[in-house]
Known about the structure:
The complex is a heterotrimer of chains A (228), B (132) and C (312).
Chain A: E1 2-6, H1 9-16, E2 21-27, H2 30-33, H3 39-55, E3 61-67, H4 73-76, H5 80-84, E4 88-91, H6 95-104, E5 109-112, E6 114-124, E7 127-132, H7 140-143, H8 148-151, H9 180-190
Parallel strand pairs in A: 2-3, 2-4, 4-5
Antiparallel strand pairs in A: 1-6, 6-7
Chain B: E1 8-13, H1 17-24, E2 29-34, H2 42-50, E3 55-60, H3 71-89, E4 96-100, H4 106-123
Parallel strand pairs in B: 1-2, 1-3, 3-4
Chain C: H1 6-12, E1 17-22, H2 31-39, E2 46-49, H3 61-70, E3 75-80, H4 86-98, E4 103-107, H5 128-140, E5 157-162, H6 172-182, E6 186-189, H7 195-207, E7 215-220, H8 226-235, H9 243-251, H10 258-275, E8 282-285, H11 294-301
Parallel strand pairs in C: 1-2, 1-8, 2-3, 3-4, 4-5, 5-6, 6-7, 7-8
Helix pairs in contact in C: 5-6, 9-10, 10-11
Bound molecules: iron/sulfur cluster (2 copies).
Amino acid sequence: MIIGERKPLEEVFDRTSSFNKILVLGCETCVAVCLAGGKKEAEETAEAISLHRKKENQPVEVKAESVQRQCEFEFIDEFKDLMNDYDVVLSLACGVGVQTMVDRYPEKIVLPGLNTTFLGYPLEQGVWMENCQACGDCVLDKTHGICPITRCTKSMLNGPCGGSSEGKCEISGDIEIECGWHLIHERLKALGKLDYMEEVEPPKNWSTSFHGGPRKIVREDVKIVRGE
Amino acid sequence: MADFNPSLVTLCCENSAFLVAEEENLPGVTPVKIPCGGQVEHYHILNAFDQGADGVMVLACLKENCKHFWGNDRAEKKVNYVKGMLENIGINAERLAYSPVAANNEYKYGELVKEMYDKLKEMGPMEGKVKK
Amino acid sequence: MFAGSNLEKVLANGHFAITGELGPMRGTDLGPCLEHAEHMRNHVDAFNITDNQTAVVRIASMATAIKLVERGMDPVMQMTVRDRNRICLQADVLGGASCGVKNFLCIQGDHQTLGSEPQAKGVYDVDSTQLMKVIKDMRDENKFVSGDEMEAPLDAFIGGVVNPFADPFEYRPARFAKKIAAGVNFVQTQCIYDMDRLKEYMKRVVDMGLHEKCYILAGITPLKAIGAAMYMKNNVAGIIIPDEIVKRLKGAKEKPGGVKAEGLKLCVEQIQQVKEIEGIHGAHIMAIAWEEKVPEIVEAVGGLMPRPKFDD
Ligand code: SF4
Ligand code: SF4
C-alpha cells in the first residue's frame, strides 16, 4: 500500500495561515491503515489547526471529514456541496488523492497535508517499510521475492556491493538498514537457487519505470465508449 | 495570578480513575468518563483544550492492571505524542499529564489533581486565551 | 593485449605490479595531485585516479587522467556508476580513450548520502558489474549498450574492485567470477589488514582458477595514526582491522618515529606478505593524504626497483 506521514505541523499551520474556512479531508484507504491520513488523523489535524489559530488570535472555521477513497472520482463526488462551504481543502490523502481532488474541483485550492513516502507494508505495529518502486518490469521472480531495486540502496542487479557488512547496508546509521542483497543471498541459499547469484544480469530497461516519463495505461478492452 | 481559576479536564478510565473522580467533585475540574485509556485519541485531548481547558490529565489504571491489557501503556504513549503536538502548536506541554490511579485510591486522585491544578494556576491561562 | 597500457604490459610480462592512488583536489588547482604523481613517477607503474571518492565532489577523474597522459604517465581512470547514467558513462569512456586513457576501473561507489552532497539524486542506471560488460562490449563487439555500432574502435584494459572483507564472505569468490564473466581484466582489493581472511579468500579464488583469468592487485593503505585506524575499524563498512594491528600501533607510541614509522613498517610488511600469496599479481598502494611516502614504501619492500620499462 501507499505509506505516508503527516507533514510537520509547523508546515501545515504555515501553508493554511491565509485561509479562514478549512476542510481537512482524510482518506480511509492506504493512509488510514498506516495511521497518517484517516479520519482520526484528519480530526486531530483539524483540532491542532483550530488550537493554533486560537492561540494566534486568528480563529478559523475548520472541519474534519474523510472519504473512502480520495483517488477515485466516484468517491469524491459526494463532497460537491460541502466543498462550497470551504475555501481550502487540506488533503491527508497521498499525492494521488490530492491530484484527483484538484482534477475534480479545479476551482478549489487543495493543499497536501501529508508527505507521500513510499510503497510498502507494515512490518509490525508502528513500523513501515518500503519494498517496491513500481519499476514497471518486475524481477521478483529472479530474486525470489526480495526487490533488488528497492531493498538495495544502490538498486544493484548484480549485488551485493563491497559495503555489505554483517547483513547490513553501508548506509546504516542510527537506523539499521538490512542489505537487500544479503537477504537475497540468504533466500536463494535456503531455496537451493544460488546459481542465480552467478549470472551477470544485463542493464535494466528503466524506460518502463518513471524514467520513461509519467506512465499511463490504456486498455481498449475495458474502456467505456458512450453509446455502445 | 491569584484571581485565575483554571479549568482542568480529567479524562478518566471508567475502570479506575473515574470511580474516584465521581466521588470527589472538585471545583474547576471536569472529569470525563472514557471506556479505557487505550481508547483516548489524540484529537480527544486536543479537543478538550480547544473547548477551553487550561490543562488536561489522562488518568488510567495502574501498570499491568489494565482490563484491556495495554490500554494504559498506549494512553501514556499517546499523551507523549500529543505533548509533542502541543509544543508545535505553541502550547506548554506541561498542561498535559498522564498518571495511573487505582480505583480505590481517592487520596491519590485528589492529590494528583490538586498538584496539577496548582501548577496550572501558576502557569496562568492557556497561551493566547483572551482573559475575560 | 587489450589496450597495451603500461600497467597491462607490466602484468602481462609477469612482473609484480605497483600502482598508486591519487585523489584529485576539491578546487580548480590540480597542482598538488600532479606533484604527487611526479614524486612517485619512477616507483609506480600506473596512477589510479579516484572518481569523487567517498562521494565527495572533486576534480573529475577523466580530467586528471588526461593530464597524466599528457605527462607520459599511465592513468587508471576510476568510474563510479553512482553519478552517471549509461549515456554519460559510455561518453566518458570514449572521452578518456580519445585522449589516451587506456585503463578504466569500474566501481559502484560509496552511497551519496555518505558524502559531501547527501541530498543528491543517485543514478545507478547500471551497476559496476554491468559497466564492465558495457566497456567489454564496446571494446570487443564495437557496440554501445543499445546495440548501435561505434564509429571507431576502443582499446581498454578493464579494471574493477573486489572486497574479500565484505559479507557474505562465502559469496565473494563467486562474485569475483561474475565480474570476470562480465569482462574485468584486473581487480584491486579493498584495503587489506586482515591477512588471514585475505589468505582464505585467495585460497578459494585460486581453487576456482580465477587468478588465471584476471590480474589481482592487493589493496594496501598505510595507517598514519591510531585515530584513523579506529575510524576505519568502526565506521567504514567493508574494512576489517584486527585488534593486533591497533595494538601494534599503540605499542609504537613511545618508540622512535612513533605511530607513523610503525604504520609504514606495517605497510611494507603487508606488501612483502601479499607478494608471497599465490594469485596476487601486484599491489595497489592507497596512501591517502600520505602520497609522498609511496616511493619510500616501494623501496623498502625490496626487489621492486627499478620498475620495468617498455618501449612503445
Ligand atoms: S522489481 Fe520493480 S515492480 Fe518488482 S518489486 Fe521491485 S520495484 Fe516493484
Ligand atoms: S550494502 Fe547491500 S543494500 Fe547497501 S548498497 Fe550495498 S548491496 Fe545494496
